[in-house]
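Researcher: We're teaching a course module on how sequence relates to structure. For the next exercise, students receive a sequence and then see the predicted structure as tokens, so they can try to spot secondary structure elements on their own. Here is the exercise chain.
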Amino acid sequence: MEGLMLARVLRDLSPHLPARHLGWAFPDETTAALLLDAPGGTPLGNLVLGYRPPQPVLFLSRERLRGEPHNPFQRLLAARVRGELLHIEQLKLDRVVALHFGPAEGFIDQPPARLLFEVTGRNANLLVLEAGEGFGGRITLAAREITGSRNRFRTVRSGGLYTPPPPYDKFDPRHMTPEEARTLADVPIGEWRGRVDGLGPLLSAELARRAELSPTQAPGEAWERAYAALKSLVADPSVSEGTMSEGARETARHEKATLLRKELREPLEKRVTLLENQLGDVARAEEGVEIAAQDRLEADLLMAYAHTVEPGAASAVLPAFDGEGEVPVALEPQLSAVQNAEKRYARARRREEVYLRLAEREENIRSELEAARERLARLEQADLAQLEALATDLESEKPERSPYGARYRTPGGHEALVGRNNKENATLTHRVGRSMDWWFHAQGYPGSHVLVRSGGKDLDLPDILYAAQLAAAHSKARGSGNVPVDYTRIKYVWRPRGAPAGQVHYTDQKTVFVNGDLPG
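Model: And here is the predicted structure for the students to work with:
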């Protein structure tokens, strides 16, 4: 159901409230029907709350409904919510409705209560809340418990606090003025639902029909006709049969697009965060170069004036090379002046190597970050076809996965498997690989084992360089230039006795030098 449809139900029911509660019926495990009696004894019928996703409903029915509670939630609903239905309210024209009940006397008196009905498609839910005003409060019991494992943005748990949907700013069609409608003259009428509250795919299709416009057509000079059609929809949010079938298709497309958009947002946000962190690494490495320059200066002073430094001293004050004053230098007392200098040289060299390695990739990181941000920005406005194309692109950019490592294809068509952890490295090398398959590993760097399943054949140079780049890119040398990578047959690789998983020795290797970026 859509917002204006819910508003129509509330508009029909509200004049008869407060209404006497005559009992609950439960036709099935996701439907609750409340039999109501208006003041003066006029039967209103059943207020039916169907909360089965993805098509929850709220309506008044004259049909006689029966059924005992099917589950603990329905049993609590029947026992806990027994007072008069005092009033019912909707959050703007959103698909969230609160039903307020008074206290009930009986063998066990019941205090006032609220029902909170989220008529929200796949996320439909019915909750019993403690008495209170508005839409927030503590949850007594929820028909559907939503935990962090199912939805990382929002949880719904019995005993927790209910958080209403976030506020939004849209035109309320019930009070919309002609001047406000004129601002939408250049917006395709099928997209008015993004600016007008209470419209979903179904009512958007009906609005286009009543305005005699295509959903992709902006009203332009015909904005007054579109405005009149919107006002007629407020008065009667019913849908013609032809629009119903078209709207149902549009609803299915909309739900599919919403779900796909949600699935794509997470990997794109992770990609943006990863690249931003990598740029942060570059900035920190740049700061490290300045520290390295200071380390080198102090090391040079220590080498020049080593003979003046007292053994075991914790610090020394040495003359500056430019003759302008003195330079204090902290020392490790257990090391000699020369050893302190050598330690500084080594530390400076590591910082400089890290910076050079990252600086080589900075331009690529920035371009990849810009592309990822652009994709993320387009995500909200993309239609289903664009979302499906984006999903295909992202999937094609991912390496093929197998039970034993990430899977690639070399230029010659051989399967290349890359271990993603020590356990997979061991499995690839000692269980999956055959004696005449090829094994690659970055020389002197922790990283992945790469197995090329050649069926015993020799590898051509393009295949060797491709697999070597995989090994370099999946090692601590990732992003570096001129990375040495060893390769040999599997039969020359073995695990030393007692060594942890993934640790090997090998012989008969050859070495190639490649860049530490993923092969194109």
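Model: If you want an answer key for the exercise: The longest strand covers residues 20-28. The chain has ten helices and 21 strands.
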